[in-house]
Amino acid sequence: MDNKRINKRLPELLQLERIIYRSKHPLTVTKEAIVNVDDIELPIYCIEVNPFQKKLPTLIVSAGVHGLERIGTQVLISYIEMLLSKLTWDVVTQKQLSEMNLVFLPVVNPGGMYLNTRSNPNGVDLMRNAPIEAEIKTHFLGGGQRLTSHLPWYCGKRDDDMELENKTLVRVVERYSHQSPFTITLDCHSGFGLNDHLWFPYAYRKRPVAVLDKLYALKLLLDRTYPYHHYHFEPQSLSYVTQGDLWDYVYKRHKNTKESVMIPLTLEMGSWNWIKKRPIQALSIKGLFNPVVPHRKRRVLRRHLMLFDFLCSASIAYKNWMPKKKNKAQIYQAANQFWY
Predict the structure, then answer these.
(1) What is the rounded distance in angstroms from the CA atom of residue 327 to the CA atom of residue 330?
(2) Rounded to 5 degrees, what are φ and ψ at 234?
């Protein structure tokens, strides 16, 4: 790689590589794909904290799907750094991670991040690019559009394959989730509203998913464990409906059974709160989606570490909190009434 240009335009990738190479804990790192931009090859890394074991529950955390939302990748890198440090001395963390699979994809869209664009280098919004159509009317442009890549939220041409980055993400998620009894995915974003949201499918329709009872049980577990947490845990469709949502597509492809359950979550960090405290940063494209003031950025990098730890614990102990067969219908009905 041209490290000089990368350091200027994509320092997160170099930071991630330094962490990988200097880690005292042996990581399993694969280059899942290569994105070419300006004659530079940008890898999409997949990191296994420990070698994958089929019968263990799995947590997959991804970030950097939208190139402008750099804070998602930075938050995930912050967690990776903390985790690798703890693994050198903390026997509790060592024991915990021996009981689960923990997988990271910190920069899913390296081309978009390098170019400082929401879309990938082809001008496609990866979160509007899956082959799934909204069942109800979406917001103009924001819900996805096929007019031109020169406008934001471009879905791509209707009959084209998904973009390389999306096919890579789907392949990686399915490789692990199909072999695990239980999988949680968390995709880190920023840019909607004043609050931090934990969203789950669907985004293409305002109807509940089949695992609604499990999602409600997870929400109640979070509420009981951290009663003063700040997350709004809800379906994405309560905020807006979109075309081609990638996590709708991943979820619908996964056949949830007793042997294999998937719960997809999206962390949407509320960037309007950063703009509210410093309106001038709305004048820059970076400031619309990221904390600019150093002390606010440090606060955000700390703010979500609890969430990652909670999801690790919830994955390991999924049998202890998931609804039992005799309670599933009752909990599903309570969840339906609560959210819909």
Answers:
(1) 5
(2) -165, 165
Q: 59-103, pLDDT tens digit by residue? A: 999 999 999 999 999 999 999 999 999 999 999 999 999 999 999
H or E element at residue 35: strand 28-37
CB 321 within 8 A of CB 314: yes
Cα 50 from Cα 102, distance rounded (Å): 7
Among 108, 13, 16, 103, CA closest to 66: 108
- SS3 assignment, position 13: helix
- Write out the two tokens for 209: 């998913």
CB within 8 Å of 320: residues ≥ 6 apart: none
Percent helix, strand and coil across the chain, each to the nearest 5: 40, 20, 40
Q: What residues contact 81, with CB distance under 8 A and at least 6 apart?
A: 19
Q: What is the pLDDT of residue 2?
A: 63
Q: Number of helices and strands (H, E) in the chain?
A: 13, 8
* pTM of full prediction above 0.90: yes
For range 110-117, the mean pLDDT: 96
Query: Among 11, 9, 32, which residue's Cα sits nearest to residue 105?
Result: 32
As a dihedral over the C-alpha atoms of residue 150, residue 154, residue 156, residue 162, rounded to 10 degrees, the angle is: 130
Strand pairing category for 101-105 and 58-63: parallel
Looking at the chain, the whole-number percentage of residues with pLDDT higher than 70 is 98
- Hey, what are 170's tokens? 């789907």
- Alpha helices, DSSP H only, in 10-69? 11-22
